[in-house]
Structure to design on (387 residues):
């Protein structure tokens, strides 16, 4: 488990060329000022809460991860062998930096860290996730979130 | 990830992608992206490096201050702070190699120490405890399989049990700290443990099986360079 550049062929080429549909440029939203930023994290690590059904390969739905959930209750159900899991095992913030986001809030660098973060399953066709992505986007807007950091795995 | 950014931005949210695979971002053109030079699986850098995690978040959010020139792709200026490989690292206990179940029993107390040190465990997606997960996989293709508890299809259960076994062993390997690299840990698990051998054998059988569901999961159980004989060199 290494950087992409260090992965042996043919895996490297497979990952680099994975499911990359073409998109027209999306007109950017005018961002909130730093003080007004209400920030959520959206991960593609297939994160779930302990006891939930794990996400399956190519699943298009998402899970909500409350910021109050104990670290030990957040599990990773993206089980690809292409990425390192030992970092996550030592520190949840490697994949979901929710503690760091709270610290930015406490230091006044953002307005607010979201109460809920979200997870999709990586390596799923993004086009097939469109409906659920828009659904979770509307949910975040309803909660006052205006900024999203998208975190891969 | 980049595709999600398009949809969320279109819904009215300002987005920033933290990207590990630069090629994907170049191809999919999300509105704003920060490429980071870290291992896959570690988008915010090394575990425990609070300053690096903050630096990545700050750099990502700083893209929101840039003029609206879209798409925006910036390379993170920091370097991977993962400590150098520890050449003296060894698994912190003598393992029993008589059987995979005996080996797992020897790993158990080490894993319990690791859970105390780490303050949590990532084992649990299969819903089985670690030793039962080992037994479930070991007997899955035998004439005497363990019963599958309700709530999950058998093929999913065995898939996630395999990942729980990997997490169980790798967490145990971290029981005494040190700085083993992810590559060291991976090589140790796949080359030096009976559990790694059991999973490789399971994969061989799953690939050869007539069961389409087993075929479907078989390809993602073992790192690719260990899976195919031409890459193994045998």
């Amino acid at each position: 488990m290494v950087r992409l550049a260090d992965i042996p062929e043919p895996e490297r080429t497979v990952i680099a060329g994975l499911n990359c549909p073409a998109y027209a440029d999306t007109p950017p939203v005018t961002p909130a000022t730093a003080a007004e930023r209400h920030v959520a994290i959206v991960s593609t690590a297939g994160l779930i809460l302990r006891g939930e059904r794990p996400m399956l390969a190519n699943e298009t739905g998402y899970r909500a991860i409350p910021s109050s959930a104990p670290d030990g209750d957040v599990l990773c159900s993206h089980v690809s062998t292409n990425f390192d899991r030992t970092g996550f095992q030592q520190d949840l913030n490697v994949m979901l930096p929710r503690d760091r986001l709270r610290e930015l809030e406490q230091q006044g660098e953002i307005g607010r860290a979201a109460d809920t973060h979200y997870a999709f399953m990586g390596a799923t066709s993004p086009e097939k996730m469109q409906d659920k992505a828009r659904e979770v986007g509307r949910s975040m807007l309803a909660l006052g979130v205006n900024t999203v950091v998208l975190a891969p795995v | 990830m980049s595709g999600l950014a398009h949809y969320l931005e279109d819904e009215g949210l300002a987005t920033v992608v933290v990207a590990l695979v630069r090629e994907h971002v170049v191809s999919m053109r999300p509105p704003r992206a920060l490429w980071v030079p870290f291992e896959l699986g570690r988008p915010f850098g090394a575990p425990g490096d609070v300053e690096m995690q903050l630096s990545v978040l700050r750099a990502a959010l700083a893209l929101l201050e840039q003029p609206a020139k879209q798409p925006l792709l910036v390379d993170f200026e920091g370097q991977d702070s993962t400590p150098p490989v520890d050449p003296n690292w060894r698994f912190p206990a003598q393992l029993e190699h008589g059987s995979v179940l005996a080996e797992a029993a020897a790993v158990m107390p080490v894993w319990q120490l690791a859970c105390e040190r780490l303050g949590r465990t990532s084992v649990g997606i299969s819903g089985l405890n670690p030793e039962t997960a080992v037994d479930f996989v070991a007997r899955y293709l035998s004439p005497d399989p363990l019963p599958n508890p309700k709530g999950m299809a058998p093929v999913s259960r065995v898939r996630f049990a395999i990942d729980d076994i990997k997490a169980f062993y790798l967490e145990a390997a971290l029981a005494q700290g040190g700085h083993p690299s992810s590559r060291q840990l991976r090589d140790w698990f796949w080359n030096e443990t009976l559990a790694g051998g059991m999973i490789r054998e399971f994969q061989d059988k799953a690939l050869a099986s007539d069961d389409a569901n087993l075929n479907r999961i078989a390809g993602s159980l073992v790192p690719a360079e260990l899976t195919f004989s031409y890459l193994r060199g045998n």
Q: What stands out?
A: The two ends of chain B are 37 Å apart (CA to CA). Chain B touches chain A through 87 residues (CB under 8 Å). Confidence is low (pLDDT under 50) at residues 229-234 of chain B.
